[in-house]
Amino acid sequence: MQHGLDAVETELRSASSADAAGPVERFLDRINQLIVIVSSIALVGAACVLTYSVASRYFLHFSTDWQDELSVFFIVGAVFMSAAAIQARRGHVAIEAIVGLLPPRVNAVRQWLVDLASLVFCGYFAWKSWTLLDEAWVENYHSGSTWGPPLWIPYSLMAVGMTLLSVQLLAQVAKPLRVARRGRRAG
Q1: In Å, how far are 87, 151, 170, 179 from 184, measured between CA atoms?
Q2: pTM for the structure as a whole
Q3: What does the alpha-carbon distance between residue 120 and residue 165 come to, in Å, rounded to a whole number?
Q4: How many domains does one find in the chain?
Q5: Who contacts 45 (Cβ-Cβ below 8 Å, separation ≥6)?
Q6: Beta bridge partners of residue 150, listed in sequence order
Q7: Which domain holds residue 27?
Q8: Cα–Cα dist 169/96, whole Å
Q9: pLDDT digit string (tens) for 6-60?
């Protein structure tokens, strides 16, 4: 029995043949690989900033107010931007208890319906993120801290990340439909 990402990666390896992946999936895969690297660097950057903050407050008695916001920007960017890469691996939190009880065909329908519902939610979230970004850009919103960075920065990361997640979900929703259509043409 396999658990967690081991089962997902085994499933991905068997399902990732060249003919199964369309151009959108291949493009998303390349983008996701790049974003995972950048997100990893951002998380390390957040850790360094927070470590500096703790050390400078404790040893040097410096008051640094910028580090909390910068680390939040790094973390928000990493989380939202890497969401599509995690979804591509089906690495988000899922309830596996029911998967083992369902026949494979019923489980495939369940997974497709979950992807469809997730697409609707994430599509709406992406749209609202873009409207929030537009408002922050037009109104020139800044953070209320003394550092005061512009809020379009984290909002843009949120909007782009949710858009990538929505496109990833759209590709996953469309894939069974495309495979079924290809099967009807071949048969």
Answers
A1: 28, 50, 21, 9
A2: 0.81
A3: 11
A4: 1
A5: 74
A6: 142
A7: 4-186
A8: 19
A9: 444 444 444 444 445 678 788 889 999 999 999 999 999 999 999 999 998 889 8
